[in-house]
UniProtKB/TrEMBL annotation:
Alphabetic keyword roster: Hydrolase, Signal
Similarity comment: family membership: Belongs to the glycosyl hydrolase 3 family.
The protein, known as: Glycoside hydrolase family 3 C-terminal domain-containing protein
CBM6 domain boundaries: 812-937
GO MF term (any one): hydrolase activity
Organism of origin: Phytohabitans kaempferiae
Keyword Lipid metabolism: no
Length: 946
């Protein structure tokens, strides 16, 4: 008789329950590590989570490399992004068919963290600064990875990284401040969309803390993430993150307690110690023995894991699963190569085009720059099966010349020149010939890479500290090919090796090693200029009809996982190159190829044409040539605001986009290039904006229609964008918010009617007075245009919603986290597994509640408070009316001494003067004073504690 779990015709829950019931407790615990052990007695094989598939199958050798995720989103074409997801999913299946132990079917993609700040080191992994657009693109990619079969999954997509993760600096120690409105309006929607649509079936928790609590312990995993669907959702930990709970984060006293807390919070699979599951299983077993977990906790996590494995078809006959027959023949097949080219082509954004310099119309093209004839892989790229560079793509179709535009230098030391041959670098060269010459790549922030002229290989440092010129490119988790030239005076420098922190010194044998602890121990070198890259590139540009300068970032250096950018500036040598080439040839086109926005204000002012592309994958050069030469229209649009300078940005660690006016939603300045910006070679006219109704109930839908006409003389792509703005509200509303878009292609003179359904229910905001979504009665400006700053037509829609009344604290607790305004405070955890609180971050910090209705009058308050610092014990929290600093005092709460982080006390105090509708403020006397909630009563104070 066939076991129930082996019968594909039985309901999935019954099959999972049957298998779960056949497993011992130890076997179930063994499922909770990334590398799940086989169960031979039941004929069950091993399984592992975690195949990287962000924009192609990664880390397993040559596979199709598509544009970076931020580039895929800049296509504004969800159907195309879905097709890329399908292709990547097929390649995962194909490689799994060939080598199942190496490539598993649980893929860790897409990344749906909204791109709140362009300095985030992992900017290229996300889609957009707008959470709704991020959700659209994340759903498209995940649904492609997942497949459309009603029973079986092509792969099991995992959303990264839940939640509030947008900084690399001290990422496992920093806490992301997410007030309720920011949480519900900005952070959660991007994750909710793919889960709710059934596109993603798993999620990964993030390294950081959220409101003082490790994200791996967040109650939001179960309270939000898993409530968005009726399906089982698998939640995995990020690498080594569970160990940090009792490690660097110090949130629990030992690993058994930390792992138990994570499992109870909703983590199902622990990504720890690579393939060694022993430590994880030991800690979970200890937690069971100590009563920190019981078997039902293990069963719950194992059920999530097994459900995913069943949906992938692991326990079914392969002929029933349409994805089981996909073979390795699909990897980098012709169809995927063409799709990679189309994706790269549609992702390119034309930022500026004066005097119709583009498309190019014949003549000689000088292709210049450090990124002009090379393609770079990022950390989550696949291995390029081939590479079509900008120069390669153009040279195949027009007469093109090339210059890299980087300086060539020699390093003269006290005993001779640094030189490279087949072995280690030495410092005893007799003359500055080719063997003693190095190309100097400036990647910004003083970080450089050296490429030996002798063999065109980069200089790196091996495990013994020896310098070798044997690296094709800088790369790897630890980049061992980057240096700083540290001035030593008298025109000399020493080489500081960044990965080891050591300084380069010549040994008695003349071999260069990064083994000196300080700069004083490094060998001093005089830098001699062998060839001036900017000058020679300018000479090349001067002889051409048009110059195309290709600059940008190296994805493995300055702005990558573990490293944020301090600013938005181009590397100085690249900026100098642009200026030199433009001075030699005013017909200069700038192509920025980068993982993130740059502050290119000088180029925007002086150059006639500017384009941007993410790192575009293997077909980048062909796609760029298609656009530059006019074979394709540049239909890409920005999914991030491009600022002029980092001074226009808030602090990187300030996640409150509402309070700090961040992203296009709230930014009040004039950006370099706005969200949604991008030009076409055609021109378009918008006319006849019309609404199916000008007034709608909160549950209704209005149809928004507009006519778009191609008024140019060639076919072109336009992205028609719909934004709304609420004119009156109880709360601060976005200045504009994207609601819908459509990418269309029109022939010259062609007109199309573009129609968008707009649901009034989508015009909600999070009402902190009730902890729920609300649609207010208000008028909304309906905006149709080419970008968030280029609005062609507007109309007014009146929505019959509801009025948000005053708070009524006599009817229930007033939670501190639900304040309307604040200064000098920070969000903290209440209990380890529930609720948030507010603490003072500096003296005189405060929070405010608008329109509080005390009725006939409040007579007393009971406050749930604690002290998180020694200074806070005995400090006062003053209740004021109407003004946080000078308003009448309504009451005073003394914060008691606490014995631990979660040692709360209820303190009672009389209240005077609080009657009718007034604004209420809590003013904190000392940092660390923390309030969870206030309960007001109309009578006098009955008791006092604390």
């Amino acid at each position: 008789m066939t076991e129930t779990f082996r019968d594909p015709d039985r309901p999935l829950p019954a099959r999972v329950a049957d298998l779960l019931g056949r497993l011992s407790l130890a076997e179930k615990v063994a499922l909770l590590h990334q590398h799940q052990a086989p169960v031979p007695r039941l004929g069950i094989g091993s399984f592992r989570t975690g195949t990287e598939a962000l924009h192609g199958l990664a880390w397993v050798g040559p596979t199709t490399v598509f544009p970076q995720a931020v580039g895929l989103a800049s296509t504004w074409n969800p159907e195309l992004v879905h097709a890329v997801g399908e292709a990547v999913g097929d390649e995962v299946r194909g490689f799994h068919h060939k080598d199942p132990a190496r490539v598993g079917l649980n893929v860790w993609a897409p990344v749906v963290n909204p791109l709140r700040d362009p300095r985030w080191g992992r900017n290229e992994e996300g889609y957009a600064e707008d959470p709704w657009l991020t959700g659209v693109m994340g759903t498209a990619y995940a649904s492609g990875l997942r497949g459309d079969h009603p029973v079986y999954l092509r792969t099991a997509p995992t959303l990264k990284h839940f939640l509030g993760y947008n900084n690399e600096t001290d990422r496992h120690l920093t806490s992301s401040n997410l007030p309720p409105r920011v949480l519900h309006e900005y952070e959660l929607p991007a994750f909710r969309a793919p889960i709710e649509a059934g596109a993603a079936v798993a999620a990964m928790a993030s390294y950081n803390l959220v409101n003082g609590r490790p994200a791996h312990l967040s109650p939001l995993i179960n309270d939000e993430l898993r409530r968005w669907t009726e399906d089982e959702v698998l939640v995995v930990s990020d690498a080594s993150a569970a160990s940090q709970i009792a490690g660097d984060q110090g949130y629990h006293g030992d690993h058994a307690a930390g792992y138990a807390a994570a499992l109870r919070a909703g983590i199902d699979s622990f990504t720890e110690d690579d393939g060694d599951s022993g430590p994880t299983l030991a800690r979970l077993t200890e937690a069971l023995d100590r009563g920190l977990l019981d078997e039902s906790d293990v069963d719950r996590a194992a059920r999530h894991i097994l459900t995913t494995r069943f949906r992938l078809g692991e326990f079914d006959p392969p002929e029933r699963n349409p994805y089981a027959g996909i073979t390795a023949d699909v990897i980098n097949c012709a169809a995927h190569q063409e799709l990679a080219r189309e994706a790269a082509r549609q992702s390119i954004v034309l930022l500026k085009n004066e005097d119709d310099l583009l498309p190019l119309r014949g003549g000689t093209v000088a292709v210049i720059g450090p990124l002009a004839d090379t393609l770079h892989e990022d950390w989550y790229s696949g291995t390029l099966p081939y590479a079509v560079t900008a120069y390669g793509g153009l040279a195949a179709r027009v007469h093109a010349t090339f210059h890299e535009g980087v300086d060539r230098i020699a390093l003269r030391g006290p005993d001779g020149y640094a030189w490279a041959a087949d072995g280690p670098l030495r410092a005893d060269g007799a003359a500055p010939g080719p063997e003693a010459s190095f190309d100097l790549f400036d990647w910004g922030e003083g970080v450089v890479a050296l490429r030996a002229a002798a063999n065109a290989m980069h200089v790196g440092v091996d495990d013994n500290g020896v310098l070798l010129n044997d690296r094709p490119q800088p790369g790897g988790w630890i980049v061992r090919e980057t240096f700083r030239l540290v001035e030593r005076g008298a025109g000399q420098v020493v080489l500081h090796h960044l990965a080891t922190g050591r300084y380069v010194a010549a040994g008695p044998d003349g071999v260069l090693r990064a083994d000196a602890a300080g700069a004083e121990g490094g060998t001093p070198f005089t830098v001699e200029l062998v060839a001036d890259g900017a000058r020679d590139a300018a000479a090349t540009a001067r002889d051409a009809d048009v110059a195309v300068v290709v600059v940008g970032n190296h994805p493995m250096i300055n702005g990558r996982e573990t490293e944020d950018r301090p600013n938005l500036a181009l590397p100085p040598a690249q900026e100098a190159l642009i200026r030199a080439v433009h001075a030699a040839n005013p017909r200069t086109v700038l192509v920025v190829t980068s993982s993130y926005p740059y502050g290119i204000g000088w180029a925007d002012t002086h150059l006639p044409a500017v384009l941007w592309s993410s790192h575009g994958g293997q077909e980048y050069g062909n796609a760029l040539a298609d656009v530059l030469l006019g074979a394709a229209d540049p239909g890409g649009r920005l999914t991030q605001t491009w600022y002029r300078d980092a001074s226009e940005l808030p602090d990187l660690l300030d996640y409150d986009v509402i309070a700090c006016d961040a992203t296009y939603l709230y930014y009040r300045g004039e950006p370099l290039y706005p969200f949604g910006h991008g030009l076409s070679y055609a021109s378009f006219a918008y006319s006849d904006l019309r609404l199916s109704t000008v007034e709608v109930d909160a549950g209704g839908t209005v149809e928004v229609a507009v006519d778009v006409t191609n008024t140019g003389d060639r076919a072109g792509d336009e992205v028609v964008q719909l934004y709304t703005r609420q004119r009156r509200s109880r709360v601060k509303q976005p200045l504009r918010r994207l609601r819908a878009f459509r990418r269309i292609t029109l022939e010259p003179g062609e007109r199309a009617t573009v129609t968008f359904p707009l649901r009034a229910a989508d015009l909600w905001f999070w009402d902190v007075t009730r902890g729920a979504r609300v649609v207010e009665t208000a008028r909304h400006t309906i905006q149709i245009g080419r970008s968030s700053a280029d609005i062609a037509l507007t109309a007014t829609l009146s929505v019959r919603g509801e009025e948000v009344g005053p708070r009524r604290p006599l009817d229930g607790p007033l939670w501190a986290v639900d304040h309307d305004d604040y200064a000098g405070t920070v969000l903290l955890d209440d209990e380890p597994a529930r609720a948030d609180a507010v603490g003072a971050a500096e003296p005189a910090g405060w929070i405010g509640f608008q329109r509080v209705d005390f009725g006939a009058g409040a007579g007393a308050v009971a406050a749930r408070v604690t002290s998180r610092t020694r200074e806070a014990a005995g400090a006062r929290v003053t209740l004021r009316l109407d003004d946080p600093l000078s308003g009448p005092v309504a009451g005073s709460i003394v914060v008691p001494t606490a014995n631990g982080r979660h040692d709360w006390a209820e303190v009672h105090a009389p209240v005077t003067g609080a009657a009718g509708v007034q604004d209420l403020y809590l003013s904190f006397e000392a940092p660390g004073a923390t309030v969870s909630c206030l309960t007001f009563t109309s009578g006098g104070m009955e008791a006092s504690s604390g």
